[in-house]
Amino acid sequence: MINILKNRFTILLIVFITVFSVMAYQIFNLQIANGQYYDTQSQHKLLSNREVVAPRGKITDRNGIPIAENGLSFIVQITKTKIKNADFNAMLLRLANIFEKNKVSYGTTLRKYLSVNPVSFGPLIKNTDSGIKTWIKQSVLASKDAQDLHTAQDMFDYFKNKRFLIDPSYSDADAYKIMLIRYDLSMGGYSSINPVIVATDVNSATVAEIEEMHDDFPGVSTDAEPVRSYADGADIGNVLGYVGAINPDEYSKLKNSGYNLNDSIGKDGIEKEAEKYLKGTDGVKTIEVDTSGRQTDEVNQHPPIPGDDVQLTIDMNMQKIAMDSLKRNIDIIKNRQGPTDVPGNLGDANAGAVVAMDVNTGEILAMASYPSYDPTLFLSPPTDKDAQKSIAALYSAGSGSPTFNRAIAGRYAPGSTFKPIVGIAGLEDGIITPDYIVDDTGVMTVDGMKFYCMEYKDGKGAHGPINFSKALAVSDNIYFHTVGLMDGIDRIDKWANLFGLGKLTGVDLPGEYKGILASPAFKKTINPYRWGRADTAQASIGQLYNAFTPIELANYMSTLANGGKMFTPHLIKNVTKPDGTLVKSEDETFNQIPLKKSTQDATKQGMVAVTNSEDGTAVSVFKDFPFTVAGKTGTAETGDTTHSNNGVFVCYAPADNPKIAVAVVIERGVFGYFAAPVAKDIMSEYFKLNGSSAVGETASPNDITFTQ
Amino acid sequence: MYSVEKTKGLNFSRQFDYPLFIGVLLLSVIGLFVLSSATKVMPGNVSGHHIMLVQGAGFLIGIVAALVLCFFDYKNFKSLGLILYIFSIILLVAVLFFGVKKQDSRSWFNLPGMGSFQPAEIGKITMILFVCIFVERIKEETKNKKANIIKFVIYSMIPIVLVLKQPDMGTAMVFMFILFVIVFVGGLPYKYIGGMILAAIPVFLGVWFFVLDKYQKLRFLAFLYPDKYQQDAAFNVQRAMIAIGSGQLDGKGLYRGIQTQNMGVPVKESDFIFSVIGEELGFIGCVVVIALIVFILLRCIYIAKNSRDLYGSYLVIGITGMMAFHFIENIGMNIGVLPVTGIPLPFVSQGGSSMVTNYIAIGIVLSVSMRRKRAIFNAME
After folding, report:
1. Tally of domains in chain B
2. pLDDT tens digits along A452-504
3. pTM for the whole thing?
4. Is residue B215 included in any domain, yes or no?
5. Which among A566, A701, A548, A539 is positioned nearest to A626, based on CA atoms?
6. A537-541, B27-31, B146-150 — which is least confidently predicted?
7. For chain A, domain boundaries
8. What is the CATH number of domain A48-80+191-308?
């Protein structure tokens, strides 16, 4: 019994000793017999995870014409290597000199905080105590060091002597160059396996130079990354927006959503609105690198998932026409100089906006705001002096910020384009009929305030008895003062509201402003006096506080044209994955407002007369146009006599089978009908009248291939 | 309940098993240094500092537990065994429902603030404590032999089935190895052992086709055909071998391994911690560690052999089998001679709860050792 046990224990003991001997032998094999080989492998097989930036989704127009695509750009990155600090600094100086020679932008972060020659704080700090403190807190490692740091010189010395141990023999300028790169490395958390990008958008000469001398630059490597590029950006700047480097605020909000410090992000327009679709998901590739950070092999890759493509509802041809026409007509108005030639024209027209919509879908076919900008400028590196000058020029231009999209954020008094609302309110609620006649004697008094017929004021004589349709055609003030007073402000505002005036349209662009609807409630917020009948009379012709955005006006026209279907105007037609799978389809839902056919027809009759009857206010523009246009001019007083009045024109066409609605505003554009040619140009493109130079020809609408 | 005959007249300072305890302490201290190097650079937001705190706490609690246990007469486990066994079976069932999923198996409980805990760790020890009762009875009682054999088989199978349910192949293999060592030392005739091996073949096939998932199969295949499956599964082993080989004779030095400090070897703080020993401490370090391990195992066999009773003998041999399997499997997979199963290196790999359970096991061995037959008594017998 004991014998058997004894045996088995001994057997177990022998088995263990044998097994561990075999393992010791294998370890000997690895470490002693093949140690040299594995050591070499180890030096060349460090694992490193590199981020692979996902290409941003493409943006195209409704016909697939590319607007935003991706190109390739080079970056320079540095990984930590076993190199003496002094040698490292010397190498970084050499690298910085190559960058400067080739005009490559680098060290952009520290430059914002610290400048050299003389040593001073950079533009981001502006010498405020809190700014300096925040920066010191963010960038100085030990809090006990931070206590003694106050001035720019303190910071410079801290980085030079304490943080980066830069040899005193370097000049301030050279030490600063080293600092610029080391600051990026330090803040980016660089390590042997985490490279930090120190320069983006590097030209190929620099890449060639670094790669050629790569033995002199341990840890420095180059790579290619996708970058944004825009085609015809200048035509669509305000809609498209642009991408730029993520800023600290955006980063802190988004770092958990897959964003990195080196990422680009949509800053405005569609680029910002559709960021979540366009961004894509960055990939990671695992590579093997040697101890100087150079890739020796690729192990595996989680490929990046490219961003989704966004197709816009915009028709680029119409968009170009809209932009050109807006600019051209502003120039034309400017040159119709002088109070004698055109009374009231001070020759100061300088800005404007236009929105064209498909009335049956809510799609925005063209949206232009002038002045605009070329988003490509914002893609240029900070070292591109010309581009930076152009950007600065954009902002210093007297006409305000070009990045301000007037089409959705500019609020303009609608003037007489508001009159249909007053009529609709009266017609719908049975206050008047289309045949209701007002006797315009040229002047009327409301609460002691005198209101004039414009023609009477200009000495041409009053209109006399006038009906609804005629009142719209000639834009008679007395008629609408009268009807407005009969309606009352509440009824007018109810209908203005139904047509979306003074409300956000919900267009898929960032930065939309809500218009202002003149109302007793609004007056209360700015004026101690109560709302009176004189206020109603003024509001009835689109004056007083009334101020709407061009997109609100376009949507109002669209809703009037299609019989009360209130769409959400939109620019994104659909979003698809690169393989064509639909991610998001177009939102064509609408809200039906209670508009009677008879009201619609009466209004249409008046608006058609605007562009067709002999005394219509825009007949001079549309007399040869082959399609019947229902339009309304508006000349809005801004209350500032040093500037010309604003010109507003709204319309839809064809009047009997509406397809398109357009709203145009020209700041200091003098008269509404001065703005009308812009709408005409856009509609000519829409109806393909230009291709056959058919302006004036009687092409039947049936011959036209519609783009929709 | 069975009444238990206690060992009397214990002289702690004279009968304490210093060689075993010091051997284990030495291995743990080396382990703490190695782990501190392995956790110096960690991926993402994992805190190496926190890991070391938990490990250090596990080490101290483990020592206390071992010392307390060696005062405790192991023979009490003959009566406590059933309760402990049921308790751990409950935990093994509970983990299937309430455990957290890691790498496709539900083997862990998350303890808020204390990391995670694997019930199978405790399960191994309680199973040893319980089934050894029946092995002793089979050997010593002439009646009820069949009933005891059946009980032994059933009580052995329950935890294995539960662990396979998780599924955790590696741990199931530990259980089986422990039982094999116990019955082997228990004197099972070789013809039965041959029969068991033959019976294992259909079991293996069944497990392969019905239990293992693709991921587990890949790991096994990667071991058999490293070239073909390298991209997927043998990659870690490849990395570990490079790290170990590059250590050469005297290693790169603690905290100075190129692969270790640059996250060249995945899970270097746990499954692949031996790569850190190999790279940073070199062949000399590996030999020292293996020598310590062999010393601990041989000392355990010596204690088992000289146990006062068969129960103590089987207990110790079961624990020896458990530790041996962990040591062999972990080192073996690091140096590319055994398949990767995710089994940690006792006293070295990261894991506070694993550290404590290993010390509990050592405490039981110490308890048996203190009450073992001494040379002087042997002579009297």
Report:
1. 1
2. 877 777 777 777 888 888 888 888 888 888 888 888 888 888 899 989 888 89
3. 0.68
4. yes
5. A701
6. A537-541
7. 48-80+191-308, 92-189, 316-374+405-703
8. 3.90.1310.10
Residue A117 has phi, psi (to 5 degrees) of 55, 75
Q: Which of A27, A36, A47 to mutate against chain B (most B CBs within 10 Å)?
A: A27
pLDDT per position as a tens digit, A62-75: 888 888 888 888 98
Chain A with chain B: Cβ pairs closer than 8 A: 124
B264, B239 contact by CB (below 8 A): yes
Token pair listed for B321: 């089998």
Q: Which CATH class is domain A316-374+405-703?
A: alpha beta
Please name the residue that has the structure tokens 């809703």. Answer: A559
Count CB neighbours of B331 within 10 A: 27
For A279-307, the pLDDT digits (tens) are 888 888 888 887 777 778 887 788 888 89
In a domain, B87, yes or no: yes
> Is B185 within the bounds of a domain?
yes
Helix or strand holding residue A582 (H, E): strand A582-584
Strand partners, A365: none
How far does B199 lie from chain A, in Å, by closest CA? Answer: 22
Range of the structural domain that residue B263 is part of: 20-370
Please give the Cα distance from A360 to A566 (Å, whole number).
10
Give the range with max mean pLDDT: A281-295, A378-392, A420-434, B75-89.
B75-89
CA dist., res. B35 & res. B29, Å (int): 10
Q: Which single residue is written with the structure tokens 């026209």?
A: A557
* DSSP H or E run through B102: strand B100-102
**Shortest CB distance from A34 goes to which of B187, B245, B282?**
B245
- CA angle, A598 then A601 then A604, to 5°: 150
Comparing CA positions, the residue from A305, A274, A271 lying closest to residue A579 is A305
Find chain A residues with C-beta within 8 A of B301's C-beta: 9, 12-13, 16
| Under 8 Å between Cβ of A363 and A570 | yes
Question: Are the beta carbons of B304 and B313 closer than 8 angstroms?
Answer: yes
Higher pLDDT, B231 or A320: A320
Is the alpha carbon torsion for B2, B7, B12, B16 positive or negative? negative
Q: Distance (Å, rounded) from C-alpha B241 to C-alpha B331?
A: 11
SS3 label, residue A357 = strand
As a whole number of angstroms, the distance between CA B243 and CA A27 comes to 12
pLDDT number for residue B226: 55
| Alpha-carbon torsion angle A525, A528, A531, A534, nearest 10 | -120
